[in-house]
Amino acid sequence: MVRSTSDLDSSPLLLPATVLQNDAQALQAARELAHTARQQAARRDQQRKLPWTEIEQFTRSGLGSISIPKAHGGPEVSFETIAEVFRLISAADPALGQIPQNHFGIIQLLRLTATEAQQAVLFRSVLDGWRIGNAGPERGTKDTLTLKTRITRDGDRYRISGEKFYSTGALFAHWVAVKALDDAGRQRLAFVRRGSPGLRIVDDWSGFGQRTTASGTVLLDQVPVEADLVIDSWRLREVPSTQGAASQLIQAAIDAGIAEAAIEDAISFVREKSRPWIEAKVERASDDPYVIADIGRLKLELHAAQALLRKAARVLDEINAGPVDEDGAARASIAVAEAKVLTTEVALQASEKLFELAGSRATLAEFNLDRHWRNARVHTLHDPVRWKYHAVGAWHLNGTRPAQHSWI
């Protein structure tokens, strides 16, 4: 089993995976994983210990294949269930929630752009326990959509060269999904097997939050890949889709989980450890009227965010039940953007307010309660909320459809 990185890449252990049958089984598997993951989440963050055991439970439980289409042998659960699965897991450990996020985003992309033969191979591998990691973003480019990595034809296969960063999930994966430009300047998505010559994954993620996601560097030096494992992902721009909304829904669910964990820890600390402020003239901090009001406000904000998250997931389910047109794709993106605004804001607010309500003792390193704010601050930087306000306003005021990409 891989626990470190060397110049020679090797694949993680391939574990037998359950194939779940329905939404109820997926939710139960998520609850069981969350129960396990919660036990040592604070310590893993403090020690920067990667959640290998928990990721392996994720795989064995069958959660990795819950979005595989029924036509390919998967349960094809609803978006509402997917959002709830990620919320449950992220409330226990948001790093564990973020690691497979791209796995699900890429499965959705395969449904839209891969050939039937490619889907058959890749979906079967996921059902068999293969995990998909991300090698899309790059540092030092004009913006997040710009790529320097290149894929070139070499006889009956391709070769890829480039350098990636923010490669969440790659270290834990069996497939590394690499975005690259071909000779015609079109974006392709290549599925590189772990252990391929020229592939190197470096665990150099040093972010102060989401510390155990291993979202570091992927190096590719003339890495070979079979032609039938190269997806024409550029075709995604040719037709309306909910690809971006589906990806963002999971991001919002992760933030909702962070917010819930921060609020629950605030409540527990106030009940069990905090002292009342002298002016309150009460025996317990939990009887302070201002603390009570603030907890009430946080709970209301959390419930509002959770409600919009569920609503957005149901909109995605409704729109994907039939052919997706431009207005449907836009409506899905706006519904998810509205949820993402509230989940972002409540995650940041709750994780900061925790300390004001719990008091000075809550700042002691032994409790590691600052991990909630660190996780919220880092994860919510994925896409700026200010642009979501703009997209939502432009849609409702002028009927302007948002752009089609994974950051709206």
Automatic annotation (TrEMBL):
Stretches assigned to the Acyl-CoA dehydrogenase/oxidase N-terminal domain: 27-126
Span of domain Acyl-CoA dehydrogenase C-terminal: 249-383
GO molecular function: acyl-CoA dehydrogenase activity; flavin adenine dinucleotide binding; oxidoreductase activity, acting on paired donors, with incorporation or reduction of molecular oxygen, reduced flavin or flavoprotein as one donor, and incorporation of one atom of oxygen
A Gene Ontology term for the protein's cellular component: cytoplasm
Keyword Transcription regulation: no
Pfam families registered for this protein in UniProt: Acyl-CoA_dh_2, Acyl-CoA_dh_N
Keyword Oxidoreductase: yes
Biological processes, Gene Ontology terms: fatty acid beta-oxidation using acyl-CoA dehydrogenase
Alphabetically ordered keywords of this record: Oxidoreductase
Protein family membership: Belongs to the HpaH/HsaA monooxygenase family.
Protein name, per record: SfnB family sulfur acquisition oxidoreductase
